[in-house]
Amino acid sequence: MLKNIGCQVHPLFMDCKGTHLWRDGRLMWQLRQLYADIQPDLILHYTIKPVIYGSLAARSLGIPSLNTITGLGTAFLSNSWVQLLVKQLYRWALSASPVVVFQNPDDKDLFVRARLLRADQATLAPGSGIDVDRFSVQPLPDVSGQYPVFLLVGRMLRDKGVVEFVEAARQVRQLFPGARFALLGFLGVENVSAITQAQMDEWVSQGVVEYWGATSDVRPMVAKADCVVLPSYREGMPRTLLEASAMGRPLVATDVPGCREVVQEGVNGALCQAKDASSLAQAMLRIAQRNPAQRLALGLAARERVENLFAERYVINCYLKAISAMLK
Fold it and tell me: What is the DSSP annotation of 10-57?
């Protein structure tokens, strides 16, 4: 797909979720060789390993890099030696970056407080931006108000709150037996918190949830849902919630960094506590108990919020401003 729109693509090996220093060193060496061959004016890095090892490789060649922290990942969800190592690697990698882009203020403040970078290096962007024309408002499918469809979109990870979603589905169905609960996203992800195929098959066979597989275009699936749910433990700026908002869907999400920037309780959806299935069930019930007109009003408020704060034009302008300042 990238080649079809005119991009040059250079495959390389990356152990996405492992902590093997030899493999990470190999990644940094590959990036350095690639950067030396291409000789770019500026490099943009996204996600943890490209930010850390790409920045170190770029700095060794004197090439400026613009780094984006898209979220903190599993390493920041528990206190461990891995978190200490990751923080030190961030300090080394970001020390020479004139601009580091964050997608929510909580992550930005955490990095500054932990002295992983200076306050003057950090700037905010409203996520990765949503094409509000491509993601257009669609009518809600449950016109009766009795058969809402709740959809979780994301990689099938425990950190995304998939287990809590399944347990909450059991609870909500006691009051709304006609409600449906669906999961959409990749199984078999390289992550310590990944949901297995066997676990998913068990949930589906029990009739608790439906698994809709994975897709490169979520729009037809979101159109089948009355509410999009993301019970994640922490996010950067969740694109799934922004896309659902643009399509006029009410939202349910955890009251954690990233999610709380998108969802406003009672305005465009409902918030719940992280890692708490009962709290999630209560939030989903607050959506299910509304009539179709009220759900539509939540969805239209979600659409308005995306148009005003998270449209891609704002993100593009943020990056153009940063790039212009770096290349003066």
Answer: ------SS---HHHHHHHHHHHHHHHHHH--S-EEEESHHIIIIIHHH
